[in-house]
Amino acid sequence: MITLADNVLRAEEFVMLRTKVGLLETPVEQAQKAIDNSLFVVSAVHEGRTIGMGRLVGDGVMYWYLQEIVVLPEYQRQGIGTRIVKRLIRYVEENGIAGTKMTIGLVAAKGKEPFYETLGFTMLPNEVTGAGMKKYLQL
Ligand SMILES: CC(C)(COP(=O)(O)OP(=O)(O)OC[C@H]1O[C@@H](n2cnc3c(N)ncnc32)[C@H](O)[C@@H]1OP(=O)(O)O)[C@@H](O)C(=O)NCCC(=O)NCCS
Q1: Given the DSSP bridges, would you call strands 40-46 and 2-6 parallel, antiparallel or unpaired?
Q2: What is the pTM for the complete model shown?
Q3: What contacts 78, CB < 8 A, 6 or more positions away?
Q4: Which residues are CB-contacts of 41 (< 8 A; sequence separation ≥ 6)?
Q5: Cβ–Cβ under 8 Å, residues 80 and 116
Q6: Hey, which of 2, 70, 115 would you mutate to test ligand 1's pocket, going by the most ligand atoms within 8 Å of its Cβ?
Q7: Going by CA atoms, what residue is nearest to atom 7 of ligand 1?
């Protein structure tokens, strides 16, 4: 059985999961700070092994962003990514201020847009919003 666990992700697992799906390898120190500064972190666990993750960053009231939604390749297409994102959305619903509007944003990896569309996200640009943008920095 695959279970979801809240706020237990370790930095080493974060690094391992990222590299296993081809994302840039982050130093453990950076990973730890990224976890510590997240609003909410979900791990997917199978037989004691962390096989997926997802986290929420943002201001915790108006702007929430999904980061590092990752499921190990051998566990993909079994609905685990969907469970992770739904858990993150539920967190927003439970922790936002009642009666206010807010947005959950993300930058999809190339080709992963259909996954997020199944969860109610829509593509940018649209009639009111321009394209998402990024600036990369190397210190
Ligand atoms: C994106 C990712 C998290 C999806 O996780 P997952 O557990 O495989 O997703 P699910 O099984 O919940 O998929 C639900 C639906 O989303 C869609 N979907 C999922 N992966 C997809 C893909 N690679 N391409 C197109 N549609 C996809 C399908 O409609 C799928 O339903 P189906 O399997 O019945 O066809 C996973 O593929 C992953 O970790 N990829 C590598 C890391 C990455 O790119 N993360 C996203 C960073 S923005």
Answers
A1: antiparallel
A2: 0.98
A3: 2
A4: 6, 7, 8, 9, 35, 53, 54, 55, 56
A5: no
A6: 115
A7: 81
**What distance in angstroms lies between residue 71's CA and the mean position of ligand 1's atoms?**
8
pLDDT tens readout for residues 92-129: 999 999 999 999 999 999 999 999 999 999 999 999 99
- The confidence score (pLDDT) of residue 46 equals 98
Q: Is the CB of 78 under 6 A from ligand 1?
A: yes
The three-state secondary structure class of 95 is helix
For atom 20 of ligand 1, which residue has the closest CA?
115
Instruction: Set out the domains of the chain in order of their start, with CATH numbers.
Output: 2-117 (3.40.630.30)
Regarding the beta carbon of 103 and ligand 1, being less than 6 Å apart is answered no
- From the list 66, 62, 98, the residue with the least C-alpha distance to 82 is 66
pLDDT tens digits, residue range 68-93?
999 999 999 999 999 999 999 999 99
Ligand 1 contacts CB of residue 58 (under 6 A): no
Residue 111 Cα: closest atom of ligand 1: 24
